């Protein structure tokens, strides 16, 4: 059985970006399994350089990992992070949980975005040496994002503080990282798909640049998109459910 070293958890009041802080620490030799949690970010960021609004009340954290696994496994860490978020939040929500996953990095509720994941990776000689997983969760309120519907845990009837969420989230990150190590992601992929858009869902990639039907997740966590008789592998992009 895999034994992971304990998390080193640092809480700060205000920081520019927890992910930028972890990246800087990694550059200076910080070991595996640092989690920085901030009450507020002044320069929080999401995918593709988007701004992640980060006033006090919601959850902002980044985890520094040194996986030393083949670079092809990088996408699996977005999937395991999404599952860890759902596992940590499900118990504080009225049943049945409305939380679902949208590839590659969104946690949704009733088609509204509740949480996002930002992956920053360093690859050396085809090995994923450093990984910073940024996690933002709307616990108390839903920020306005142009063109996106957002929601919050509070609006869904759930309540947990950022400090209360930290140990639950760390425990579930540990669980899914051990699962990934144990069977190379087979269980992770199977469980992820039970909480995601079902096969056959119509998807549009990058504002319609590519459109097709969801056909599953491949062995390295990439999206499989069916277009007629052709299956296209999508390794990155913004997905919209049609």
TrEMBL record:
Its EC number is 6.3.4.15. Residues 1-181 form the BPL/LPL catalytic domain. CDD domains: BPL (cd16442). The keyword Cell inner membrane does not apply. It comes from the Bacteria. GO terms for cellular component: cytoplasm. The lineage of its organism: Bacteria, Pseudomonadati, Pseudomonadota, Alphaproteobacteria, Acetobacterales. It is an enzyme of class 6 (ligase). Keywords: ATP-binding, Biotin, Ligase, Nucleotide-binding. InterPro entries: aa-tRNA-synth_II/BPL/LPL, Biotin_CoA_COase_ligase, BPL_C, BPL_LPL_catalytic, Transcriptional_repressor_C. It comes from Acidiphilium acidophilum (Thiobacillus acidophilus). It catalyses: biotin + L-lysyl-[protein] + ATP = N(6)-biotinyl-L-lysyl-[protein] + AMP + diphosphate + H(+). GO terms for molecular function: ATP binding; biotin--[biotin carboxyl-carrier protein] ligase activity. This is biotin--[biotin carboxyl-carrier protein] ligase. PANTHER family: BIOTIN PROTEIN LIGASE, BIOTIN--PROTEIN LIGASE. SUPFAM superfamilies: C-terminal domain of transcriptional repressors, Class II aaRS and biotin synthetases.
